[in-house]
Amino acid sequence: MVCGVNVTPLILLLAIGFHSIFEGIALGMTDNEGIFINLMIGVALHHIAATISLGVSLGQHQVNSKKAIFLIFFGLSLIEPAGIGIGIGLSDSPEFVESIVMSLAGGTFVYIACSEILVHEFEDKQHRYLKFFFFILGSAAITLLWFLNSQHSHSH
Ligand SMILES: [Zn+2]
């Protein structure tokens, strides 16, 4: 993207949509209940952040139609379950397929965060240090989850 000149809600929407479908497929292919629950918690947490970002972006671009906003979020909420359905259908496929799908889900999310949200947020010079502080805080919280998670899986 052209260095986040302005985050078009449409690109953000497409990126989140792509991310959700791959993530849903990866979730659907998971056959371990514990891993599935951990993933669900992670999904719920980062999707709160993603949908707030999308909401802010829609607001900044004066998308005021209640109908459009409803359709966008309603449509988005259907993509992940659809992906899960596809994933369940693919659950017999070899393990590397799940790895590829999971990588696509992770990669698209890193793209969303770095190219569509962070660049745009830090371009605005106001409250930069505060934003940076919360960026570090958020990264630390997610890293902590990862540590808790890996400890949990080692105990089995
Ligand atoms: Zn996600």
UniProtKB/TrEMBL annotation:
<feature type="transmembrane region" description="Helical">
    <location>
        <begin position="96"/>
        <end position="118"/>
    </location>
</feature>
<keyword id="KW-0472">Membrane</keyword>
<dbReference type="Pfam" id="PF02535">
    <property type="entry name" value="Zip"/>
</dbReference>
<dbReference type="InterPro" id="IPR003689">
    <property type="entry name" value="ZIP"/>
</dbReference>
<keyword id="KW-0812">Transmembrane</keyword>
<feature type="transmembrane region" description="Helical">
    <location>
        <begin position="130"/>
        <end position="148"/>
    </location>
</feature>
<feature type="transmembrane region" description="Helical">
    <location>
        <begin position="7"/>
        <end position="29"/>
    </location>
</feature>
<protein>
    <submittedName>
        <fullName>Uncharacterized protein</fullName>
    </submittedName>
</protein>
<dbReference type="GO" id="GO:0005385">
    <property type="term" value="F:zinc ion transmembrane transporter activity"/>
</dbReference>
<dbReference type="GO" id="GO:0016020">
    <property type="term" value="C:membrane"/>
</dbReference>
<feature type="transmembrane region" description="Helical">
    <location>
        <begin position="68"/>
        <end position="90"/>
    </location>
</feature>
<keyword id="KW-1133">Transmembrane helix</keyword>
<feature type="transmembrane region" description="Helical">
    <location>
        <begin position="35"/>
        <end position="56"/>
    </location>
</feature>
